[in-house]
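>> Question from a student workshop board

For tomorrow's exercise we were told to take the sequence and the ligand below, predict the bound structure, and bring the output to class. My setup keeps failing. Could a helper post the expected result so I can at least see what it should look like? The ligand is zinc ion.
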Amino acid sequence: MARDVLTTDIRGQFILLGTGTSVGVPSIGCPCEVCASADARDKRLRCAALVGLPQGNLLIDTPPDVRQQLLREKVGLVHAVLYTHEHADHIFGLDDLRLLPFYLGHAVPLYCEAIVEDRIRKSFDYAFSDVEQTHTGAVPQLVFHRIGLAPIELLGATITPLRLKHGPRFDVLGFRIGNVAYCTDTSGIPPESLALLEGLDVLVLDALRPRPHITHLSLDEAIALAGELKPKRTIFTHMSHELGHAVTNARLPVGMELGYDGLRVPLT
Ligand SMILES: [Zn+2]
Ligand SMILES: [Zn+2]
Ligand SMILES: [Zn+2]
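>> Workshop helper replied:
Here is what the output should look like for this input. Compare the format with yours to find the bug.
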């Protein structure tokens, strides 16, 4: 029997659950101005997005902050999880999905590439153990679905995965859903993926900090890339404490802005 669930209707909305880099902003022990800022937009949890699709809510990544992110957005139901990649800041909130099977009536479907499944099976080995559990709900109930670069039908929508380079060693996925695309954790977008990002209404794009970084786009690199792709609106994410919201936002070209936790854009 599925339990009652408290949730809100987010159909048609794409929600940035977190916009911070892997250590979050404020960062532990940091005395800088941005970490001390009173501006709510300078409080950045780890990156994830929540998408209200026609047949349910799709969570993109399960960062360590996912519990407070779902509580903040008053969304109690997630029907499927889609992963960009296997880094700690994108998977380590997975245990907090333990309650979902009580509401869904079945295990939580996880859509990811093989490398992500391998990492999740290692990091959350107790969820895949043969040992009988002491009680229902003791461990997350999960079922994997393999994805690649082919478009997938999920919860009544077509989602197009696209390859992103995340430094020299990591190949990760971005996703296009209609005319909205989510491209976090990237240092460069290959030409075949750029071709899939034409004609966007909204591009959410990695922009770590002013200085270059080996696995992320700098703000200037992200601005240049957005200038080439020309989406109607570009929203930067995965930001470090080197990008204060108000000061940085005021300097960005027209049509570009820094994201912030809780920002909602319509799916188109
Ligand atoms: Zn990350
Ligand atoms: Zn700081
Ligand atoms: Zn990463």
